[in-house]
Amino acid sequence: MGEDRGRWSVVDAGNAVRSLQLNAPQGGPDDLPLLITGAASAINATEIVVYLADYTQSLLVPLLGAGLDRDEQPIETTLAGRAFTTLDVQRAPDNPDRIWVPLLLGCERMGVLEVVTPAAADPATEGPAWEVAVTVAQILVNRRLYGDVVERMRRRLPMQVAAEIVWGLLPPLTFATDDMVVTAILEPCYDVGGDIFDYALNGDVLSIGLFDTCGHGIKASTLASLVVSAYRNARRCGLDLVDTAISIDRWVRSEHPNLFATGLLAELDRTTGRLRMINAGHPGAMLLRDGKAIRELPGPTALPLGLGHLSGRRPRVHVEDLHPGDRILAYTDGITDARSLEGERFGLERLVDFVNRALNDGLPSPETMRRLVRAVVAYQNDELDDDATAVFLEWRPPHTPLAHLRDLSALTTRSP
């Protein structure tokens, strides 16, 4: 057993990683399954299969090459799905020749890696499997831009042009450092138009923008494109929070004089926990502490973006000093306004109850968001009348004892 551990951790994983890194630039995205399978023998495996999460994060879809045959794996009911949701390696008691490894790029959950090997029962296989999974994730992100195979396989339904515009503008759904996590979710995946979000970390300041434009379809997505681009431009020009809101407001009024967008613009100083926020006609954000939603942050401090000329006042900034471990949940009205078949709203109380239970279960933040949006979609019988978007921010200074929280960023440097 000791010799097997040495062969895996010292030689074989390195050979597989080098093979993947050296050969990936020589092919296109369609060659990735063959490339990844070809590296299997270097880690004493017979097969390596990539499964990517579909856009709704309800299925894991196999990226197959010639000679491989696999079925989709439901995230809710399979070991592959459990690896995705828990971020832990999973083994099948009745199928001891394979393990399921989370496929992560930094903290962004992409899917899982199935490794078929006679050494699957040996715990020493986990380290090399993690190394290969990290390399595969990097290659997938780097190569998928050159073709459509990855995008096509992740789509279970045709995507509308309005949704194509929005998804093309979004940052990764999850980002984490050792002292904070920001994660978001967006539905309906194939027909969104008006909701959009963005974030950026510059030095010690994390900037977050969540916007909900009026209307639906192409007009809404076009306005969303302008809003997020104006937000990024103002931020990159070094404007402060108030002038950023004013700049977006002017661009909306200039290019779409009969339309508007609600928005939350926030800045978190990750060294002090000071949160500064402008609420431009948007639903309020929830402050969560010690596993409970303690209160709603103040409502609008400015008119919706595009209507600022109706007031002579500059946007007002709300300041909140967070406690270590605090979380902020921001959302669009598509979350709370979702209605059951009986016409009952999902509502703020049900939203708070859901998040409280998820926090008490100790779920990773991205999994909390995934389950929340699945619950909202199910509540409305899989037919959302409006975009449903939520952004979850967690501030956790490294010196704070939060043993029950998973440090997502540590997974990027997990040791074999």
From TrEMBL:
One Pfam entry name: SpoIIE
Keyword field: Hydrolase
PROSITE patterns (alphabetical): PPM_2
Domain PPM-type phosphatase: 145-395
Keyword Secreted among record annotations: no
SUPFAM superfamilies: PP2C-like (SSF81606)
Name of the protein described by the UniProt record: Serine/threonine-protein phosphatase
